[in-house]
Write a structure and sequence with these properties.
- With about 120 residues, this protein is mainly beta.
- It contains no helices and eleven strands.
- Strands 2, 4, 5, 6, 9, 10 and 11 form a seven-stranded mixed sheet that branches.
- A hairpin with a 4-residue loop joins β7 and β8.
Length: about 120
């Protein structure tokens, strides 16, 4: 079992920045892919970004170059640096991990609120 704990969410003005962190309870050397999803009330959870064990990353088109995902295996942590935030970025952000065993795990979510 892997526990994922997110932090770094909060309230920020439009144009501001936040860095989300997700710490895994076990070594992420065994995690093939980690990423971030987000969800607003009444809407399906949607993909934001992912990064593989090989360092390859992928982003949803609405990121528009504003977000950067990174991974630190020594700290068992994945990050999402978010710049130039917009009100439409407001959502609960969830950390996701897929193990080499093909099991998926989710964090509890951290709230990001962007004011206009």
């Amino acid at each position: 079992q892997v526990q994922l704990v997110e932090s770094g969410g909060g309230l920020v003005q439009a144009g501001g920045s936040l860095r989300l962190s997700c710490v895994a309870s076990r070594s992420i050397f065994r995690i093939s892919t980690m990423g971030w999803y987000r969800q607003t009330p009444g809407k399906q959870r949607e993909f934001v970004a992912l990064i593989t064990s090989g360092g390859n990353s992928n982003y949803r088109d609405f990121v528009e170059g504003r977000f950067t995902i990174s991974r630190d295996n020594a700290k068992n942590t994945v990050y999402l640096q978010m710049n130039s935030l917009k009100p439409e970025d407001t959502a609960a952000y969830y950390c996701w991990a897929r193990l080499i065993s093909a099991s998926d795990y989710w964090g509890q979510g951290t709230q990001v609120t962007v004011s206009s």
